[in-house]
Amino acid sequence: MKIVILHGSPKGEKSVTMQYVKFIQKKNPHHEYILHNVSKRIKQLEKNEDLFNGIIEDINSSDGIIWSFPVYTCFVPAQYLRFIELIGEKKSAKAFKNKYTVAISTSIHFYDYTAHRYINAVCDDLDMNYAGFYSAEMDDLLNAKERKNLLKFAGHFFNSIKNKIHCLKKNQPLEQNKFNFLVEDPTRKVDSKNKKIVVITDNDDSGSKIGKMIQRFTSSFNKSPNVINLNDIDIKGGCLGCMECGYDNQCAYKDDFISFYNSKVIASDIIIFAFELNGRMFSSKWKEYFDRRFFYNHVPEMKGKQLGILISGEVSTYLYDFLQGISEFQQTNLTEIVTDGCSDSEVLNNDIQQLAENSVSFANSGYIKPHTFLGVGSKKIFRDEVFGKLRFVFQADHRFYRKHGFYDFPHTQYKKRLFISFMMLITAIPAIRKLFYGKIKTLLYAPHEKSVDKY
Ligand SMILES: Cc1cc2nc3c(=O)[nH]c(=O)nc-3n(C[C@H](O)[C@H](O)[C@H](O)COP(=O)(O)O)c2cc1C
Atom 8 (ligand 1): residue with closest C-alpha? Predict the structure, then answer.
């Protein structure tokens, strides 16, 4: 069988994910494998028609396709997203139709499912036979049990192709909300006082729906907020995954991204992301923004800010999770996500007005809503990873985490540890255990009741 590998790491062959694919290849040498480093060569693929068409010809004549990629900022790297955009722009979707496919990623399991749900949706849109995904922890290949598991997955893939097994589709075709947005002048203007507001977008068309949503948002204020277009900033490319920033937050690129990020984004109190979805996802330009923000590594540099989001297009659950997830990880308050998925112009005008009002009101009161699983989980994953095996890579994170008390493992809370050990010991005695579990409800709520009485 002829298998095409569309590899998504900007590191090309020197990538962790690539070793997983090579392992499958080594253990299944009877198949033919054709590797395309699409992320590493994205700039050439954008310009060179023949190069791109060569890949499409390989897809056309293949029996199966492997999407292999690292998870970068909860999705695929910006360069890979750009390749997926090119499939649409160059009208090459037909080549993928009915092809059997799987996705393989490596990551530290931080929002790996969002990346895979997105790729699953892309495959469904391309009318492929999507036979599943394999989300490996980056070091899984070092473990014999995991290597066996990977080969079982590969076996399932080859078997799916050979026996033409049925693959179910999880994503319905997208439905665009088509109502024409009529922008109304606000009946009251929001006084932004001394709060700095910035709207970041990649939209170049003021007459588009997202263009009008931005206009409605900015007109809600007595003083129009700053609107910055990502296309106007000198950003040389997506994150290269070199991790040079891990030591002291210095990025290998010499372009304007860092000064833009520090002087416009971090310096604002209220930040609004505004984008139109390109099918299932925001543009690769936006992904470039999220990936390049990685020079701050795993610290919440936007802590305490209000984050509002304007979106035109059908928002998938994984995109909602991503937006809420990055907001909570960054310790911002996700003021609201306003989309044009509502019924009509009146509702959308009111939604945008409310976003403007809440942003300022929450910024003034300093309100940050409590974190859900998405934020709490993120913090614990990074705490463990940075303290553990990634400490020497992400030394800037380590310094920050130590200084700001992020290392809140139980092993530093000696009093609590002593108490827990004591309780474990005495509850081994049946009579005490009975007494303890009989009083557990009271023990749990009593301290909170005291707080209610006291404050
Ligand atoms: C810029 C950047 C962003 C990353 N974002 C994530 C992430 O969101 N979730 C995650 O689990 N791992 C993340 N990682 C870790 C990589 O997914 C992991 O190291 C992967 O094995 C790299 O594979 P590669 O060598 O094939 O590029 C990120 C790494 C980099 C460099």
Answer: 73
Residues 205 and 154 occupy one common structural domain: no
CA–centroid distance, 179 to ligand 1, in Å, is 39
Q: Does residue 254 fall inside a structural domain? A: yes
What CATH number is associated with residue 81? 3.40.50.360
Give residue 91's identity as a one-letter amino acid code. K
Same domain, 356 and 445: no
pTM: 0.96
Give 299 Cα–ligand 1 centroid separation in angstroms.
15
For a pocket test of ligand 1, which of 5, 39, 73, 321 has the largest count of ligand atoms closer than 8 A to its C-beta? 73
Q: Is residue 339 part of a domain?
A: yes
Count structural domains, the chain: 3
List residues near ligand 1 (CB under 6 A).
9, 11, 15-17, 70-74, 106-112, 138, 239, 241, 243, 291, 294
Q: Which domain holds residue 430?
A: 409-455
* Domain match, 231 and 350 both: yes
The residue ranges of the chain whose pLDDT is under 70 are none
The pLDDT tens digits of the residues spanning 384-413 come to: 999 999 999 999 999 999 999 999 887 778
- In this structure, are 341 and 215 located in the same domain? yes
Give the pLDDT score at 410.
Answer: 74
My answer on whether 153 and 222 are in the same domain is: no
Q: Whose CA is nearest to atom 22 of ligand 1?
A: 70
Q: For ligand 1, what atom is nearest to the CA of residue 10?
A: 27
In a domain, 291, yes or no: yes
